[in-house]
């Protein structure tokens, strides 16, 4: 009986994991052709880049389970094909959380909450185009104070690698 219950538990976990991976795949399949670099962060690596142990940063990222960041190439910027990826996420039940146009930075953030919290987004500036996929919860209220208190030497700049 114990083996049957362990097997059933394993099937349930695999089933839940499969749905998370399929939603992550939408972005992964797109960036395979348009990505210059890929960065993957887990809780330990998110804490490691915080050299000075900034408390606002730690509070902001403490409930992030996984963060994927992709630096997209100029083709993705020129044809704006990343917008079709965001549309695919909307079809999967993701809702628009934030959109910003104008100036030198454009931003799109979509999210889906439930058994797991998932977010996907694109940041575009004159210098670069970044896409991200996040599993977990981010403390959005900490972002303004983090930006205000952020110093150049507080974090390792991952984009230098």
What's the total helix number?
6
Strand percentage lies at 25-35%
Helix content: 40-55%
Largest sheet: 6 strands, antiparallel
Oligomeric state of the chains present here: single chain
Outline type: globular
Q: Which structural class should the secondary elements be placed in?
A: alpha+beta
C-alpha Rg (nearest Å): 17 Å
Order of helices and strands: HEHHEHHEEEEH
Q: Separation of termini? A: 52 Å
Domains (count): 1
Largest sheet, spatial ordering of strands: 1-2-6-5-4-3
Mean pLDDT: 75
Low-confidence stretches: 1-21
Q: How many strand segments?
A: 6
What does the model show?
This protein has one domain. The chain is 43% helix and 29% strand. The chain has helices at residues 2-34, 43-48, 55-61, 74-79, 82-91, 142-149, and strands spanning 35-41, 64-72, 95-100, 105-112, 118-125, 129-136. Strands 1-2-6-5-4-3 form a six-stranded antiparallel beta sheet. Helix 1 (2-34) packs antiparallel against helix 5. The chain is globular, with a radius of gyration of 17 Å. Residues 1-21 have low confidence and may be disordered.
């Amino acid at each position: 009986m114990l083996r049957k219950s362990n097997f059933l538990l394993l099937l349930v976990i695999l089933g839940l994991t499969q749905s998370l991976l399929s939603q992550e795949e939408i972005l992964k399949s797109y960036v395979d052709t348009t990505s210059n670099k890929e960065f993957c962060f887990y809780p330990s690596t998110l804490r490691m880049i915080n050299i000075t142990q900034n408390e606002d940063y730690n509070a902001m990222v403490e409930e992030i389970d996984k963060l994927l960041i992709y630096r997209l190439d100029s083709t993705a910027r020129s044809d704006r094909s990343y917008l079709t990826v965001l549309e695919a996420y909307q079809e999967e039940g993701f809702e628009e959380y934030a959109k910003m146009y104008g100036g030198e930075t454009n931003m799109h953030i979509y999210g889906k909450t439930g058994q797991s919290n998932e977010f996907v987004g694109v940041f575009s500036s004159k210098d670069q185009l970044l896409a991200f996929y996040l599993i977990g919860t981010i403390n959005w209220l900490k972002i303004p104070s983090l930006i205000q208190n952020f110093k150049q030497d507080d974090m390792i700049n991952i984009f230098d690698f």
